[in-house]
Design a protein that fits this description.
Helix content is 51%, strand content 16%. It contains 14 helices and 8 strands. Strands 1-8-7-6-5-4-3-2 form an 8-stranded antiparallel beta sheet, covered by helices on one side. Helix 4 packs parallel to helix 10 (189-215) and helix 8 (137-158) packs across helix 9 (163-183). The radius of gyration is 25 Å and the shape is elongated.
Length: 411
């Protein structure tokens, strides 16, 4: 319903095809120029539905004494439909007398829980990111959820901690795992910071569920078996990787003729402006562009903060239109790390700029409008979380380029 309402509010046509029913989140992410408010509400609703579905699935598995392994898959889009149906038809297990658990266990349970959660994070990154190149729901949603669940479950099997204390242990375990990723050069600091809000929410959700299992003090099943689902999820996402197209459109009015604007954008150019936040975060931004020749088919070399790019001119209409197609991409960002090299595959190939068009339109007041149309591909899920960040980076870079053009042309 939220997707339908969002499209209606934006006056955009919504096609009720199979993709709408199987991937509603992706359909919402494709809404042209989706506002930050819509994205935030959609993201919040997605998290709520994920948490509720996970809790209900594990509770049903608990009621049936089976299905905890399958319940882990109930958080994955599309496939969750089949999993929920399977779990729903599982019969109730006959009640048995539960052995009384000893509630007085030493601090060893806390230590084991801490390191178990951190270990899951490290292994998940090694398998999903480094081995399979999968950056999706399994890594950013399922991994922190299961890490938090395992940490809280083990911790509370030895002692009944409060919900707040359990959450603190879960967060501490996550921080330990992230620190290990940084020290092992598996991830950089900025990527960890960017993923932290989503990971923290999912870890606390998982921790709440794990604590609930532990304090029930009966043997209705062991949620630790659920971590066996992670490799299968990673394999599934590596076989069918996400691919979200993102289009952007920007305009600026310049006090100059189309000829004067063309003379600047169709020649070698230095970009003197860059967003402070883009610069600090290490995300790539354009610094210089070189036209090796003129006309359609000519090569264009770009110099970015993270490296060089190669592109070709696909449209060349003097004083009107210039279109460039990217052939070789620079790294999407430069990681912050104690080491020179960070072994993070997402730096290349997971966010690409495909095409950029510059269109010059003369205005009645004697000025001209310079428009930039760009197309990109984002290959990281969940799209609700990463798409707003990608759009923000695109907007910041293009706005800085347009302001730089305006300053050079008008001065």
């Amino acid at each position: 319903m939220f997707v339908i309402a969002s499209y209606a509010y934006a006056s955009s046509k919504l096609v009720f095809d199979i993709w709408f029913w199987l991937f509603p989140n992706r359909v919402l992410a494709l809404l042209p120029n989706i506002s930050p408010i819509h994205a935030a509400i959609g993201f919040a609703l997605t998290l709520i539905s994920i948490g509720l579905l996970a809790i209900f699935s594990y509770q049903k598995a608990n009621w049936s004494h089976r299905g905890h392994y399958l319940a882990s898959f109930a958080m994955l889009p599309t496939i969750q439909i089949i999993i929920v149906i399977i779990i729903a038809v599982l019969p109730k297990f006959k009640e048995v007398d539960a052995d009384v658990e000893d509630n007085k266990s030493g601090a060893s349970h806390v230590i084991i829980g801490l390191f178990s959660g951190a270990f899951i994070i490290i292994i998940a990154v090694a398998i999903s990111a480094l081995t399979l190149g999968a950056y999706g729901w399994g890594l950013f949603v399922m991994t922190p959820f299961l890490s938090g669940m395992v940490t809280a479950y083990i911790t509370n099997r030895g002692r009944d901690l409060s919900a707040a204390k359990s959450a603190n242990v879960v967060i501490l375990s996550g921080l330990l795992g992230c620190f290990a990723l940084l020290m092992l050069a598996l991830e950089g600091l900025m990527c960890i910071i960017l993923a932290a809000p989503l990971a923290a929410i999912m870890a606390i959700m998982g921790g709440s569920l794990g604590r609930g299992y532990a304090i029930e003090k009966n043997k209705v099943g062991n949620p630790l078996y659920s971590i066996a689902a992670l490799p299968l999820i990673f394999i599934f996402e590596s076989v069918i990787p996400p691919e979200l197209p993102i289009s952007s459109e920007h305009h600026i009015e310049i006090e100059a003729s189309p000829q004067n604007i063309w003379d600047v954008i169709a020649n070698d150019h230095y970009n003197d402006k860059s967003s402070f936040l883009i610069n600090v975060s290490g995300l790539a931004y354009p610094m210089k562009i070189d036209f090796l020749s003129k006309g359609v088919g000519s090569e264009v070399k770009g110099h970015f903060s993270t490296g060089q790019s190669k592109a070709i001119v696909t449209e060349w209409l003097p004083n009107k239109l210039l279109a460039i197609k990217m052939i070789i991409q620079p790294p999407a960002m430069e990681e912050m790390s104690p080491y020179r090299d960070v072994h993070a595959p997402h730096l290349n190939g997971y966010f690409d700029t495909q095409e950029t068009k510059f269109k010059i339109t003369p205005l009645a007041n004697g000025n001209s409008r310079l428009s930039v149309y760009s197309k990109h591909k984002l290959r990281i899920d969940p799209s609700f979380y990463w798409q707003p960040l990608a759009r923000w980076a695109i907007d910041e870079n293009i706005d800085s380029v347009l302001l730089d053009f305006k300053g050079q042309i008008e001065n």
